[in-house]
Each structure stands twice: as C-alpha cells, then as structure tokens.
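Quick entry, no commentary yet.
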Amino acid sequence: MTVYRLTHAEYADNLKASGVSNRWNRAEQYVIYTSGSISLCALELLAHTNGIRPKGTFKVMHIDIPTSINIATIASEKLPLNWHLLASYPITQKLGSDWYEEMNSLMMKIPSAIIPSESNYIVNVKHPAFNEKIRLVKVEDFFWDHRFPTD
C-alpha cells in the first residue's frame, strides 16, 4: 500500500516527526500524518490554512507500507457525533495517544475529519518496526493551483 504526505520541500527527504500535538496525538508523541490519496493530503493542508494556498515549495512523499503489517483502525461510526470539531480534540487525542503508547501496531487508520468516508493514516515513528517496515519510495514536486487564494 502507498500512503502520501504533502509537506514543505525542506522536510520531504526523510520520515521524521515533529512531536507537535494534533488531532490524534499529544505533544511529544512522534507520528507522521499521511493520507490515502494525494488529493486528500492537499485538502487536509488547505483546511489547516483556512483555504489559503500555503507559501513555499511543496513535495509529495510516497510512502510504502507493507500489506503484512497490522493497522489499527478507528471507524467514524465508533466516534462521538461531533468528533471532527476542534472541541473534540481531547477525545481524539486520547484515542490516538492510547494507540501510540500501547505500541501494538505501527500504523493507525482514521477517518478524515473533512471527508469521513476517506482515510488518513498515522505512522508511529517510535514503533520498533518503523525503520524496518516503512520506506519513503518517491518524492515529487507539488504545485498549488493558482486559483487558490494567497494571503
């Protein structure tokens, strides 16, 4: 399986995580957020910038995930009604944090907060199998369409 990460060019040469908290992880938990498609990556990033085209040079990272690994899954129907709202971060962060700390799987499949029928994938870079199983196989240029506004 291939998952994708859209990032600034200066971060696209390796699989590192910042440890910054986000929807599915707490601070100092080192995970990489990826998506099942390049278009979902772009949409997720635009959501974080209020629809404003991000500045800078971007790259798409193609990350190979072996089909043999166990992937934990959180289905949207198992989540509270408003799980996608900012106010629900404590709920989703607890779910992701518990998964991270248990170390039972290298990856977790989660619904997109923007398109819940599509999936994002979180990769735990501190999992013992990370260096052996997860591979960055290709990096491509990504160009934002000029019709997206800039600030």
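second:
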Amino acid sequence: MAEEIMDDPGQSEADFSAALDGLETLNRITFAHVPLTRFLDRLVAEQGLSSLSLLDVGAGGGDALRAVARWGAKRGVAVDLWGLDRSPWAERHARTRGTPGGWITCDLFDLPPDRRFDVVCCGLFAHHLPDDLLVRFLRWLPRHTIRRWLILDLHRHWIPWAAVWAGTRLMRMHPMVIHDGPVSINRGFTRADWTRLVAEAGVEAETGWVLPFRWAVSGPGA
C-alpha cells in the first residue's frame, strides 16, 4: 500500500506546514469536526458535565482543538485542551494558528501511564498506523481515558477518493496534499475492518458511520 509523504520525516518544515494548511481547509469545507462536537454534546448532556479535559492524538495543526475551544465557549463548558503529536513542527504550526491549551511532543506510546484525560480523541490519524500498532492504540486509548474516547477516520470508498482526487487539484493545493489525500482514502476503513480490529484489541467499542464518509469508533475509559 502506498505511503503518505507527510509521514516521511525527511520533509521540510515549510512543506509540512503548507500541507497542514491544506488539510485544515479540507476539514473545514467537509465539516470534519462536526462529529466530534456532537459527540461532546452527548457526553456533557449524559454526564452533566460543566468542564472536561481533552487530548487530541495526532493533533497536527490543531484545528480540532480550536473547534473544541469554540464549542466549549458556546456551550459554557470549561475545556482543558491538550494536543499530542510526534512531529517537532506541529506545535509551532498550531501555535501560529492560535491553538489554545497544552502540547505534548512525543510518540503516543511514550505518554506516561498516569496521564489521563476525560476525553481522548483523534481525527484522521488511525489510518496512518499499520494494523499491529492500531490494535495497540485501541488498547492504549481506554488506559488514558477517564470518560470516553473517540476515533474519527476515513471510510474507504471510491466516492470520497474521487472527490478528494479532483478537489485537491481544482483548488491547487500543495503537492503533498494532492498526493496524500487519495492515499489516505485508500488507507481508510470499512466496517469489517473495524469489527476485526476491535475484536483483536479486545476492547469495548461502538462503531458508526458519520458524514462525510467517516467512521466514528468510541468506547469508555478503563
């Protein structure tokens, strides 16, 4: 299976940052953060929360954290936000875009076991992991989650592949985004994939399809 250029540590910071800007544009025009904020709406309503801590794994440029900050301000929910990304350039990019909260630069599996958050989420990160690491990540999530965790990732299907292939070219996006966008779709998931991976991990999880062509996989903290 083809690899994404963004995963190559040999890329320059300028190219990495330009690609993050392109991905943030795609997230914005596809309303990619709506499933996350709806998930948080349900959580605070069910558990009567007025505050929560949240860790975004593979936070990239921080656009999901900024969306949650806006959601918290609108809902009157105090949010303690954290981003985690192993790229040494991610935090600098996120800060220049006004991302609030704390930041952790490390491999996710190096996070100390006592670091736990009410919510742990990730968007468009899981498809970067090979199956063995994704199963390990599924086991990692409950251990670092107090209330609920959420994975949002791509549905592997020809319709989003064609839309991303054409859209990134029509919008004259960065070459890395033009290459990585369709590759990401091909590295995405079907329901059968998630059923198999969750069973192999042995974790409690619910899987549902959400717009636009995404999977939402969520479960409780340990």
